[in-house]
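Many introductory courses stop at the sequence. We go one step further.
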Amino acid sequence: MIRVVLDANQFVSALLKPGSNPDAIMLLVREEKALLLMSESICDEVRRVLAYPKIFKRLNLSKEQCDLFINGLRAVAVITAGTLSLPPLAADPDDTKYLECAVEGKADYLVSGDHHLLDLKFYQGIRIVDPLTFLRLCGEYSQDGQ
């Protein structure tokens, strides 16, 4: 099974845009066609991003609903131990958490829209791609999922 790490914005995009490529990736996870890898620091970042006033307002979710979403992710994901410490990513040290999770969880892919990560292309054998490329590589892209 394909092992994948998603950055926080992929989860937000999946919630904001049903039928989007990030939403299609989440469907692959729910259908057990891809194994989602997360760490506690990624869960914390998703929670923080969902609480941003602009996003919180657009999603119209209560704090409890946000917590349920995070708990749902935790239920379908493999949560890595979080013991690996890599040198901070020079372009954006905060993105290092995704690389640590990917390496620790032996991910095949890290999916992001962040150019700081995408510019790496590969990290320790892990391919870093945008959502559309991931879906194409998995053979799951359809013209509807943008």
